Amino acid sequence: MSLASWFRWNEPPSRISQRNPTEMVVETLMMELSWQIKQAEKQQRERENEYRKIKTGVDYGWLVSYPKHNYDISQGERLQLEDMCTKIHPSYCGPVIVRFRQVVAEYEPEAQEVSRLFRSVLQEAAEKIKEEEEAKKLARQWNTKNRTSLSLATFKSRSRISPFISDIKTISEDVERGTQPTRRVWSMPEFRNTK
């Protein structure tokens, strides 16, 4: 047994994982959620320390050791959030994260409230995606409807009688050309303006 096979030096470098884009979106969004929960916990601890310092007047923060990660969402809620994340198109992943960070910065929630804010941002994004898909669908229907109606309109216009092209002589045509009208043979008398 050679040493090279033991360390796998002869293997070609592995390619970027061939994962589904939906899986990557879910993983990215859930990582953002867990990071925001940790940040909310950290801010909550800092607020408690400040309150304790103001209340007692003494800083014992250097004595206190906190666990790394205290709060975690339930498994059922995690599955629901992952299911909601699958409905987010990969092109919306970045805007969803930006919106989620804005909401967290605006409300400064506690760790328990972060998942609810995340859910509301996901619902908002899903509704926006649905509206855009419906708008695209209507636009496609409109374009196909216009194509058929335009073809019918051109067909109808070819078969119409044009009122400007006729063999019937009218007075207005003579006036437009600047010629003297021919004598009318109608039942009404002819009035001429004499100069």
From TrEMBL:
Domain of life: Eukaryota
Xref: InterPro entries: RD3
Biological process (GO), any one: retina development in camera-type eye
PANTHER family xrefs: PROTEIN RD3 (PTHR28489:SF1), RENTINAL DEGENERATION 3-LIKE (PTHR28489)
Protein name: RD3 protein
Organism expressing this protein natively: Oxyruncus cristatus (sharpbill)
The organism's taxonomic lineage, starting at the top: Eukaryota, Metazoa, Chordata, Craniata, Vertebrata
